[in-house]
Amino acid sequence: MSDSNETTLVGTSALIEQLLRGEFICRVTNEDGWRALKNNSTRERIETYLNQINRTLASAGEGEVFFCGYLQLGDAERKVVSSQFKDICSALIPLVEWLVLVQEASGQDAPLSEGAPIRLTDLQARIEDTPAFREQLTKLSQYRLFGSSSSNVDGQIKLVFKRLVELGYLTKPNSEKQIYIATGKLDYLYEVIRFIDETEGLSLEAQAETATQRELI
Amino acid sequence: MSSNLHQAGVKLLKQLGRHADVIMDAYLAGSINDTAHDSGVIEKLKKSGILWRPEPDQELRLKRSVRALLEEALSDERNRQIDSNVGSSLATIKTLADHYKEARHNIDHSAAEAYLADLNEHVYSFTDSLRYSIRVLWGRINNEFGYVGTISAKIRENELAQSQVSDLLNGLEMFQFSELGEIAGDIRELRRLLMTSLQETLSQCTQELSIVQGRLYELLGRFRQIQGRTRLLKGWLLHTDMHPDYQVDNHVGHKAIPNLFNCAEALLAPASVDVSNPHHELELMSLVAQVKAISRDALPHIAREQNVTFEMGDSEDFDIPENPLKIAVDEYFCEVIDSGLRQSALSYLTEKQLTWDAESWLYQVIGGYEGLADEHKNYFELEPIGKPDPVYNGNFIIHDVELWLA
């Protein structure tokens, strides 16, 4: 009895730490933690704790991704949120270009989303074989988000993936293998774009559709 | 009559077996060229209605019934044909039931029996085709319409399946069991067939179809989400391409910040060690014990900020002071060359009144001789003078060496 209690406590503390470090918790990055957050009583316990330090548990991606937000927004908190918003907005273009490149280079129908694996060597080979993809990679790797000054595909793609792991959009489950897995933070990113699209009335989907139809004609 | 039918059927099946290769070729390729196969065989197959020519200048194709047989037996996923025409089956069943009732009424037993068998056949084949349709639908759901490549094609396939499901469900609704009950009346055979067996199957199938429908909606939702995301990304790139000065509005400037952007700053710094906590004593001790290993791991990593340029240049001159003992030995060698005489090293030492210790001198002389290049060494002969050790055999004690020109 006491044993099981202890395990939960230890588990929750690690989870709270992860949340307070600003990490996104999803099934890919921390399956046990994600499961714990799906459980109502654990979630309430964590929420109570977080509330004491003006934090709250927030979720995105239809409740599949958890992160830590502020409970009350004072001036200081607003400043933080504002600067984070700027960060994510400036990261949108490079990230979207990267997502489209990965989708097109791997010839997939679906864009990357949580749990999708990427084999770096395969992707690299495909990009190296196609001049258009090489050009796109060079362009996107030079954005400040990635900041590559390398002139070859190998250097560029390695840096881009390293940065994406640092930013939490990808994980590398086995450090020996060049296989990356997309995390729930990517689903958060889609939600951010959708939010901007809907609030500003950009009708991005319609724009894409008319463009595709024009291409077909 | 029935034995004739039996014989004809066996003949047909044998023909199918005999020309299985041709039939499978036609099945897989969709059609076959009559010139590619034996014209006799083709003619026979055409005559027995296995192959047919849809248009005069078209290639030969398999008859639908043969094709359906193969599709079902092979569980071929390309098969998306579903017989959703419940209405005509219902009408046939009703008609046959009426025939049967009339024959019974006229006490024409043989006719009644024939109609009942026919009715049985129709009811069972109807339920079988219904179950088969559901199986086909599940097959398509389970591999997520894997037989088509793109998301838009999958969405279209899904919509086709949805319409088939709704057709089936609408058709099943036409079965009014009260009506069937009226038809069956109080005739036991009909009640068993129409009320019990058919009703049970139909209610099972209706249930299963609604599950199928639910799954199809779910899949469609997922496909639409994927398609939506792809379009969202493409649209974003298009939009930012067309409006290079586009800036995202400041969505966090409002009074109420959307939950999505309410992301707290990373907060946690590592805690410090409390050395006075007795509970941690053991662990801290073991950590301290590992400090040596840790210090090796934590060697400052020399990271170069950028590449340091490295230039090749002339190496600077440096001197190694000559050893005076070595110089003295060199002079001794020169003396031997000059005199051309055999000379003892020790006597040279005393003669020249050199200050070196005798033992060091001898070592240096031997060393000097051994250190000569082979071509120079050949000009000299060096002989150690000494005697074997009185106590330990195998040891030779050198008192002096003599050097002369070879």
Could you characterize what this model shows?
Chain A: Pfam families: MksE (PF21980). The complex is a heterodimer of chains A (217) and B (406). Chain A is mostly helical. Chain A has two domains: 69 residues; 132 residues. In chain A, 63% of the residues lie in helices and 10% in strands. Chain A is built from nine helices and five strands. In chain A, the strands form two sheets. Chain A has a three-stranded antiparallel sheet with strand order 3-5-4. Chain A has a two-stranded antiparallel sheet with strand order 1-2. In chain A, a hairpin with a 4-residue loop joins strand 1 and strand 2. In chain A, helix 4 packs antiparallel against helix 6 and helix 5 crosses helix 6. Chain B is mainly alpha-helical. Chain B has three domains: 76 residues; 162 residues, Methane Monooxygenase Hydroxylase, Chain G, domain 1, CATH 1.20.58; 82 residues, no CATH class. In chain B, the strands form two sheets. In chain B, strands 3-5-4 form a three-stranded antiparallel sheet. In chain B, helix 6 runs parallel beside helix 9 and helix 12 packs across helix 14. At the A-B interface, strand 1, strand 2, helix 4, helix 8 and helix 9 of A face helix 9 of B.
In which range does the helix fraction of chain A lie? 55-70%
Q: Main beta sheet of chain A: strand number and arrangement?
A: 3 strands, antiparallel
Q: Kindly report the average pLDDT value of chain B.
A: 83
Q: Which chains share the greatest interface?
A: A-B, 54 and 37 residues
CATH topology of the largest domain in chain B: Methane Monooxygenase Hydroxylase, Chain G, domain 1
Distance between the termini of chain B: 131 Å
Task: Give me some keywords for this one.
heterodimer, A: 217 residues, mainly alpha, 3-stranded antiparallel β-sheet, two-stranded antiparallel ribbon, globular, B: 406 residues, Methane Monooxygenase Hydroxylase, Chain G, domain 1, 3 domains, 15 helices
